[in-house]
């Protein structure tokens, strides 16, 4: 072999190795997973549950309208507040008068039956008579008011199932809440969101309340918790409406934990175990290499953003360009505080 | 001789091919496995089989996606080149010293010592070498391996055999002309040993190219390991191709120097 051929061979090999080395290093750097790391910090776990609460009056009255009367005018609407003595509904005066006299006749018949010697008939008649007397008294008052139903105390219409022109039936009624009474909020939260909540507030247009939870009931079939608040002074709400929906916020503050980390760092394996990835360094062929090590953690408590774990951790991978893998070599692009 | 004369030619050829093939089985297996796809594919048809078993994937990964491999490749060169240069220097100097004078008992004894030392396995010398290098503070550096490999008694004996073929009268004539020993070594012995030196470089390079124990024991730093050590830890998905690529430079060197090498070995 000539010396020239030998040197040519050696130079070719060196050139080839140089090219392969350069390309490999370029591809290697480009292919590394890029990660950001941080350390756990002492903190609290704060959880917040939001629900839609409904305001309910505690004292709901139902006023049954006399049957077979034409409704001439409905003077209130659902949700409307009324004062004591305010007209609510006007019924046809003639219909009321006819009904009144029918009731009187029926009352006299029952009175005759009540004087009979048959004890059973006498008992039945006595019961029916007392009920009829109440209705007759109401109709008498209604007739004197020319068919107009007046409010006996301040309140709010919660239900109304007649409109002008209707002929009332036995089911025609008017429900209203007593504004002088108390109201309470009722709301539900998902069982997964359940905590030992320490603060609960309700808020809406122009008002904000701190609520004290009066009852909590777990509805197993629906996997929900039903909460009710203690009676709320309705004066604190500008225009309280029965059935009014409002935002409820429930807050929870845990004890102080020594190690809190972002919840998205934690992954769960097929056995239900939790683990995180920590950044480690080792002596490798390319010098100091950064790689990831999968480490199991015991999660004490979580909220929507953070999780408390048993032991403080350093160099915790909080973000990676692609899903991290155990013992994977990585490039650290950021070290967060 | 009887077998040679009576045996049929075809049978002899078959036996030779069989034995030759048997020796080549490991190399063939590595070459075949290097063509397997680095990722396991589900083989359902012929095309899938071809993709699984005839793939350049391992070579592509080795050549363009394995910086560790090439780093170790360079490490091998960084060990080989200085070690080989020192080996040539020390082996030729020692060989000249042993062969230039008149034969004496001391000279014969020294040659015997070299022969005995070259017969000792490398593993036996690892511990004393380690102790000595540790005392010198060289453990962990490439110089430790270079020094251990540079003073090889086998190569001294090897060069002695070549140097001995130079006629002593040439040295005598040079001395009578007033030439010093260094001048004789450089101007007479070295040119005479030239082809032997090439052979030494060839054989020594192959030896150093494949060394495992010394770097593993003396260097102890993965970033300085030669490729022979790194191959052990390589992923099997690309390890076979890595082995083939690693052996190519030495194989090509032997193919290029083939005729000269055979001639030199015949002279020894």
Give a description of the structure.
The complex is a heterodimer of chains A (337) and B (268). With 337 residues, chain A is α+β, with helices and mostly antiparallel strands. Chain A has 3 helices and 22 strands. Chain A has helices at 3-31, 93-114, 119-144; strands spanning 33-38, 41-57, 60-64, 71-74, 81-82, 87-91, 148-150, 155-160, 173-178, 183-190, 199-204, 207-210, 213-219, 224-229, 245-262, 267-268, 274-284, 287-296, 299-302, 306-309, 316-320, 330-335. In chain A, the strands form 5 sheets. In chain A, strands 2, 10, 11, 12, 13, 14, 15, 19 and 20 form a 9-stranded antiparallel beta sheet that branches. In chain A, strands 3-9-8-5 form a 4-stranded antiparallel beta sheet, with no helix packed on it. Chain B is globular and about 80 Å long. Classes of the chains: A alpha+beta (337), B mainly alpha (268). The A-B interface holds A 1, 5-6, 9, 13, 17, 20-21, 23-25, 27-28, 31, 283-287 and B 63-74, 77, 221-223, 225, 230, 249, 252-253, 256-257, 259-260.
How do the helices and strands line up, and which of them pair or pack?
The complex is a heterodimer of chains A (337) and B (268).
Chain A: H1 3-31, E1 33-38, E2 41-57, E3 60-64, E4 71-74, E5 81-82, E6 87-91, H2 93-114, H3 119-144, E7 148-150, E8 155-160, E9 173-178, E10 183-190, E11 199-204, E12 207-210, E13 213-219, E14 224-229, E15 245-262, E16 267-268, E17 274-284, E18 287-296, E19 299-302, E20 306-309, E21 316-320, E22 330-335
Parallel strand pairs in A: 1-22
Antiparallel strand pairs in A: 1-21, 2-10, 2-15, 3-9, 4-6, 5-8, 6-7, 8-9, 10-14, 11-12, 11-15, 13-14, 15-20, 16-17, 17-18, 19-20
Chain B: H1 2-6, H2 9-33, H3 46-53, H4 57-64, H5 67-99, H6 105-119, H7 122-135, H8 142-150, H9 153-163, H10 168-176, H11 181-209, H12 213-218, H13 227-233, H14 236-256, H15 258-267
Helix pairs in contact in B: 4-14, 5-8, 5-9, 5-11, 5-13, 6-9, 9-11, 10-11, 11-15
